[in-house]
Amino acid sequence: MKEVERATPKDDARAMMKAAVFLVHKGIKDKVVSVFKAALELLKYVLQDFVPTYKLTKGDVTFAVEKTLPKLLIKIGNTATRNRDEARNFILEMTHFTDVQPLHIVPLECVKPFKVNLAPRLALCRMELIEKMYQDLGLDNSGFITENVMTFCTQALKHHSGSVREVAERIIISLYKAVGEPVKSYLPPDDDKTRKNTLYRQLFEAFDKIDGKPSKQELKKQQASEESNKAAEIEALQAQLQQLKDMGASVKPPGDTAGKNTGKGNLKSNQKQGDINIHINVVSKDKKKAPAKKVAPKGVKKPTKASEEDDTSTLFNIDKTCIFCGEKDNAFTEEGLDIHYWKSCPMLKRCANCKQVVEIASLSDHLTTECDSKADFAKCPRCTEALPKSEYDQHIKDKTCNPAETSKSHCPLCHENHTQGEEEWKTHLMGKTGCKHNPRRIAHLNKQPTGAKGKGVGKPVGVKAKGIR
């Protein structure tokens, strides 16, 4: 063929090409390696040199490829490794021939679905060939489209060989990265029934991962973890409630003439249960002077032990009312109040260092005198707020803090000054125009009350929370 003159008529050149293709067809089926390689060399010459030299048509190119490619696809499953590799490499090379690539003949022929009972080795080699070809060519003007690739892969998913199915999965996932949702239209619906099949579950979980969604398995693990954490939280709250009950039994009522408390009581829980530690300080109404010890008049009986216990329980639960914010709720049992203090009372805050629940009004004092990390804090003489010692020097040097005023209270959250007094603290920490830095304030305002709220209902007579001025 190399000796044929360029002036040869096109019909004669076409006849010579068809004869060469016939020889190639025979040589591809030959078991001798040297014959097979010679056939490939001849086909390469026909497609790369002979066709453009004698200006043969696209139809002639199509004829040459369609006659030889099916035999090459069978050859890639040959038991002889050399034959198998030669056939595979030639197909991939032929895809990029100048007169072959624009016709998209090779991808379209290779992507035709095969039977589910095809020999596993041949099916696997076919899948790997398509995977490599798709990686090289992509979807843009290559002959590959979503429809023919998915039709090919869904058929391969039915093959009995796991290796064949794995390659099909990889191709589908790669295609999903490129086109997204249209891929799912060729698969069964994504529901619990379909996900019971391991093959489809793996595919849909891969899709979820690509979309940035947690897989259903991850959601189940997350839900189980949340339930476990909730159970641990309930257990810790129950333990804290028991502590409060034990403390309540040991507190003397305000009217006890034999009590040793001379004006200041400290109701405190320092026993940590998990991550919960509630710390509530209370003082008598008269901070300056302890109530005088009085002798009961004749004929008046002293309080009985039972009445003392009733008074003690009243300290924690006055008409199911929070003694700090004044909220009244039928759910405020001792346990309910405990949860309210810990999670939602807008007058309280959990210390980030020791995890105790303290009043916001006394937060600075707590950080510098009571907290487990008090050694790490110092109080600014200008604004009276507690600051980490690592920031203290710079804070004092800058002098940019809002100075505290002796006639007013200073909020440690928003750093603003406001009128002194218990009700003023409530207005500031709970009101609609109050402290913008109190995260519990908004939740409190938005909360739908489940019981009546008593206006002006506060702490029991003779009891005042520490830090409220």
Question: Can you tell me about this structure?
Answer:
By secondary structure, the protein is mostly helical. 50% of the residues lie in helices and 6% in strands. It has helices at residues 10-29, 33-53, 58-75, 81-94, 105-110, 120-137, 146-156, 162-179, 192-195, 198-210, 216-250, 305-316, 334-343, 363-370, 389-398, 422-430, 439-446, and strands at residues 264-265, 277-278, 282-284, 348-350, 356-359, 377-379, 386-388, 408-410, 417-419, 463-465. It has a three-stranded antiparallel β-sheet, with no helix packed on it. Strands 2-5-4 form a three-stranded mixed β-sheet, with helices on one face. Strands 6-7 form a two-stranded antiparallel sheet. Residues 254-312, 314-318 and 450-469 have low confidence and may be disordered.
Q: Strand arrangement, largest sheet? A: 1-3-10
The ordered H/E elements are HHHHHHHHHHHEEEHHEEHEEHEEHHE
> How confident overall, as mean pLDDT?
79
Radius of gyration, Cα only, in angstroms?
42 Å
Helix content: 40-55%
Number of helical segments with 4 or more residues: 17
Structural class comes to: mainly alpha
The total beta strand count reads 10
Largest sheet: 3 strands, antiparallel
Low-confidence stretches: 254-312, 314-318, 450-469
Overall geometric form: elongated
The share of residues in extended strands comes to 5-15%
Distance between the termini: 109 Å
How would the blueprint of this fold be written?
Layout: H1 10-29, H2 33-53, H3 58-75, H4 81-94, H5 105-110, H6 120-137, H7 146-156, H8 162-179, H9 192-195, H10 198-210, H11 216-250, E1 264-265, E2 277-278, E3 282-284, H12 305-316, H13 334-343, E4 348-350, E5 356-359, H14 363-370, E6 377-379, E7 386-388, H15 389-398, E8 408-410, E9 417-419, H16 422-430, H17 439-446, E10 463-465
Parallel strand pairs: 2-5
Antiparallel strand pairs: 1-3, 3-10, 4-5, 6-7, 8-9
Helix pairs in contact: 1-2, 1-3, 2-4, 3-4, 6-8, 7-8, 8-10, 11-13
